[in-house]
Amino acid sequence: MMSLPPGANEPVESVVDLGSVARIARETITAPHERAKVTHHHDHHTFTVYGVTAIDETSDPLDPTIQRSRIIGIQYARAILTIRLDHTFGMDEVRDRCRMLDEPVVGMVVHTLLDTAVDGYFDSLEALDERLELLEDDLFGGTGTAFVDDFQVRAYQARKEIVALRRLVLPMRDVANSMWRIQPDRSAELEANFNDLNEHVLRVSEWTESLRDMVSTLFETHLSLQDQRLNTTMRKLAGWAAVISIPTMVTGFFGMNVPYWGFGRPAGVGVAMFFFVVPALTVYLVMRRLKWL
Predict the structure, then answer these.
(1) How far apart are CA 229 and CA 236, in angstroms?
(2) Which of 15-19, 103-107, 228-232, 250-254 has the lowest mean pLDDT?
(3) Which residues form a coiled coil (predicted)?
(4) Where are the alpha helices (DSSP H) in 16-144?
C-alpha cells in the first residue's frame, strides 16, 4: 500500500500517472467536493471515503467540533494507492493494523482502511452524544435571554454536525459492498471481515438517526418550555391586573365630584377602605388558589 500525504497536486501527479487513470477517477482525485463512492474501470477501481476526527474543545460554540478528511483510494490487482488531501486522517493506525495481518492481500488492506475510517465515526458520534447529554442537563436548569440564545446556538451546531456526519455515513454501506464484490480473493476470513464492517456501518447509521431524533426532541422540548414560561408570565400579569383593577375602579368611583353615602363624613372613609381592600384581597386569594400568582 502506498499512501500520499497531503500536499499540492505536483506530488500526486509525479507518483500517479494520471494518464493511465480513467477520466472519472482523475476527476475524483482532483475535484474539491466528492461524496463517498466507488467507480469501476477496466484495470483499477477508485473509491472515496471520509475519515472524521473529533475536536475536544472549541472557544466558539459555532466552531465545528468534527473535522473530516477525504481519502481517495485506487485499487489495482496487487496494490492499493491512497491519497489524502489534509493531515486530519493519519495512516499510522492503518499501517499498524496491516502489519498485524497474517496475509496482507489487497482485500484485507482495503477492509482495514475502511474499518479504521468507520471506527472514527464511532468516536465522533460518542463526542456528539456527550454534547447532547450536556444540553439535556441544561435544558431545565437555565433561564434568561443569554441562556436561551446560548442553548439555541449549541443545539443548532450539534444538529448541523449530526446532519453533516450522516451524509458521510449513509454511502459507506454501498462503498463497503461494492469493494467486497470486486475483490479477486473472496476468502471466508475476508467475507467475515466485510460482514463485520457492514454491521459497524449499520450501527453508525442507526446511531446518527438516534442522535438526529434526540436533537430534534431537544429543540421541540426547548420551544415547549419557552411557551410554558411565557404562558406562566402572562397568567401572572393577568392575575395582578385583575387584583389592581379593583382598587382602580373603587378609587375612580369615590373620586367622582358627586355626593355619595358618607360623603364628607368619617364613615365614608371606612366604606371606601372596605370596598378598596376586601374585593382586591378576595381576587388575590382566588388567583393564588388558581396558581395564577
Answers:
(1) 11
(2) 15-19
(3) none
(4) 23-30, 92-99, 106-139
Residue whose C-alpha cell reads 391586573 in the numeric block: 241
Sign of CA pseudo-dihedral 15, 19, 24, 30: positive
Q: What one-character DSSP code corresponds to residue 16?
A: S
pLDDT in tens, 216-239: 888 888 888 888 888 888 888 888
CA distances, 113 to each of 34, 83, 118, 160, 189 (Å): 18, 12, 9, 27, 16
Burial class (CB in 10 A: 0-12, 13-18, 19+), 33: exposed
* pTM, two decimal places: 0.69
Give the list of residues 6+ apart from residue 76 with CB closer than 8 angstroms, or none: 43, 44, 106
Number of residues that this document lists for the chain: 293
Residue 290: what are its φ and ψ, rounded to 5°? -80, 0
**Mean pLDDT confidence for 181-210:** 88
Q: Give the pLDDT score at 200.
A: 92
Nearest CA-CA partner of 127 in 186, 74, 178, 57: 57
Per-residue pLDDT of 60-76, as tens digits, reads: 555 667 788 888 888 88
**Strands laid side by side in the 45-54 sheet:** 2-4, 80-84, 66-75, 45-54, 37-40
Pick the closest to residue 76 from 49, 55, 47 (CA basis): 47
Q: Angle 250-254-260 (CA atoms, 0-180°, nearest 5)?
A: 130
Identify which of 133, 93, 99 has the alpha carbon closest to the alpha carbon of residue 113: 93
